[in-house]
Amino acid sequence: MTVTILSLAARGEDEIAVTFALREGEHQQIEAFTVSAADVADLRLCRGDSDRETFDAVGHLAELRRARKQGLYLLGYGACSRRTLCEKLRRKGFPKEIAEEAVALLCRDGYLNPAADALREAQRGVAKLWGKRRIAAALFSKGYDEAEIQDALFSLEDEGVDYAELCAERIRQTMPDLSADPATKRKRIASLERCGFTHSEIREAFKQVSEES
Predict the structure, then answer these.
(1) What b-and-e string marks burial along 57-68, b requiring 16 or more CB atoms within 10 Å of the CB?
(2) Could you tell me which of 6, 74, 87 has the C-alpha nearest to residue 45?
(3) Per the confidence metrics, is the pTM higher than 0.85?
(4) What distance in Å separates the CA atoms of residue 166 and residue 174, rounded to the nearest whole number?
(5) Taking the domain 2-108, which CATH number applies?
(6) Cα–Cα distances in Å, from 155 out to 116, 119, 120, 150, 183?
(7) Contacts of residue 93, Cβ cutoff 8 Å, sequence gap at least 6
(8) pLDDT below 70 — which residues of the chain?
(9) Which of 18, 44, 160, 174 has the most crowded Cβ, counting Cβ within 10 A?
(10) For residue 18, what are the CA distances in angstroms to 8, 48, 93?
(11) pLDDT at residue 155, rounded to an integer
(12) What pLDDT does 12 receive?
């Protein structure tokens, strides 16, 4: 098989369309890829004879460039974890390796900051009066890894988040009448547990609210 670069054509400010001809016997195939001007310089592309290795490298870079652009578009709709963005790119038809590489580039270039995004999601959980366990579960469901989740929770502690106080505020807002029968109280405790609060936090919260009345 012979590989030839037929043309290099500018597309906008930073893109170059590279057109290849692949010939094997009497069969000829034309393929065109769009890559960055920097890629063209790095690979030292020019018109004329080329090889299959260069053709494959240009194809990979073009697919990676498409995935990165799609990733930026998806991030325009809201923050994503690395895992979630990778999954979204795969649903768009990109291979796993390309999706993961594109996500790594977006992290490197500062477009994707999982640690900061995880903290913002955790702070939203605080605003919803969730306990630590519910916040952690929500972060996990959004694709953040264990290290990112733990860092977000530690940051909440540094900000002075008091989960017993959050629990007390939820009680104030949703359970104004504390004089309930045992069955109702058990249901209330179960509800607070589903919000992510521990038994000790719930006891402290009920004590705090009771002393206020």
Answers:
(1) bbeebbbbbbbb
(2) 6
(3) no
(4) 12
(5) 1.10.10.10
(6) 10, 7, 10, 9, 37
(7) none
(8) 213
(9) 18
(10) 5, 12, 22
(11) 95
(12) 79
Task: Enumerate the H helices of 12-79 as residue ranges.
Answer: 37-43, 52-75
- CA 53 to CA 31: how far, in whole Å? 14
Q: How many angstroms separate the Cα of 70 from the Cα of each of 34, 61, 106, 144?
A: 15, 14, 11, 20
Contact (CB, 8 A) for 192 and 184: no
Tokens encoding 199: 């038994």
Residues 114-152: pLDDT tens digits? 999 999 999 999 999 999 999 999 999 999 999 999 999
State residue 61 phi and psi, 5-degree precision: -65, -35
pLDDT of residue 2: 93
Domain boundary assignment for the chain: 2-108, 114-158, 163-212
Residue type, 58: V
DSSP string, 155-186: HHHHTT--HHHHHHHHHHHH-------HHHHH
Q: Residues 3, 51: contact at Cβ < 8 Å? A: yes
Q: What is the DSSP letter of 3?
A: E
